[in-house]
Amino acid sequence: MNYFDLPKIDLHCHLDGSLRPQTVIDLAAEQNIELPSTDAEVIKEMMVAPETCPNLQEYLDRFALPIKVMQTAEGIERISFELFEDAAKENVKYLEVRFAPHLHIQQGLSHEQIIESAVKGMKRAEALYDIKGNYILSAVKFLPSDTIPPVLDAGEKFLGNGVVAFDLAGSELDNFAHDYVTYTQYARDKGYRITIHAGEQGCGQNVYDAIELLGAERIGHGVAIKDHEQAYQRVKQDVVGLEACPSSNVQTKAIPELKLHPLKEFHKDGLPVTINTDNRTVSNTTMTQEVEKVMELFDLTAEDYAQIYRASVEQCFASDEVKQKLMQYI
């Protein structure tokens, strides 16, 4: 099977985890940010997480350098454009990218300017390539909760025009969902769709709570439901999309090794599981590589892939018109 030529959909990809190393060097020079090296390979090593990290924090530490150069409108627009360009060039037909605008205000940009820059870069790529996309606005749990509403307010004008959803990301404590009920309700009231990082490092109960308390329509990762029957059945019953990120899940120790990933079992049992990159640079991967790993390791067929692709279309937050177009590729 030619994995490169397969039409692909990535629903879980972080902007700040998917920068080209040379772009970091270029932007640092423009912004007078001192780097330890101007060798792209050295910078890449600083941004790529080990194949197995001792914990999730070790993985998250790889975002520090990208965030430094993502404090200008021009830098954010360029990074957004390049991510969509890179994805389009490996036959990704639809891409949902998430990022936390509040991490990019260090040089005085407003939330609205930050979101506008990301959307502008995406739309520039859409005009040049056969790819469609949307942005998901994330809140990270290590920031104060009162930083969330201003981001949602700023993104509201872009809803349906480049922005589609709200996400909670970052390190995962057990029972975290209880602290965010008000904020996800605020997002839903404005028209945001909801996807929540849960069941990655934390327990399966977090996935159940994300659906029950926060109204999650999709779950980022969600692997922990394999050990939590109630959460598993809730995902199945409510047809909640699971955004599986195979390489990342091994790196962060969510799964000990790839062959133990529950993705195949989820798929065979009819759960709406999708294949995603998480972070193209930090995980040193592409959608082509993720699909190939999953297909080869789990001995999946072309029909299995078609089913996963269709699940991705059904679970994406795109318009009906875009969904219809995406279905034509398979």
From TrEMBL:
Domain of life per record: Bacteria
Location of the Adenosine deaminase domain: 7-329
Names of the cofactor(s): Zn(2+)
Catalytic activity from the UniProt record: adenosine + H2O + H(+) = inosine + NH4(+); 2'-deoxyadenosine + H2O + H(+) = 2'-deoxyinosine + NH4(+)
The keyword Coiled coil belongs to this UniProt entry's keyword annotation: no
Site for Important for catalytic activity, residues: H221
Entry binding sites for substrate: H14, D16, G170
Residues annotated as the enzyme's active site: E200
Keyword entries, A-Z: Hydrolase, Metal-binding, Nucleotide metabolism, Zinc
GO biological process: adenosine catabolic process; hypoxanthine salvage; inosine biosynthetic process; nucleotide metabolic process; purine ribonucleoside monophosphate biosynthetic process
GO cellular component: cytosol
Enzyme Commission no: 3.5.4.4
Pfam families according to UniProt: A_deaminase
Family of the protein in this entry: Belongs to the metallo-dependent hydrolases superfamily. Adenosine and AMP deaminases family. Adenosine deaminase subfamily.
Protein name per the record: Adenosine deaminase
Species in which this protein is naturally found: Vibrio brasiliensis LMG 20546
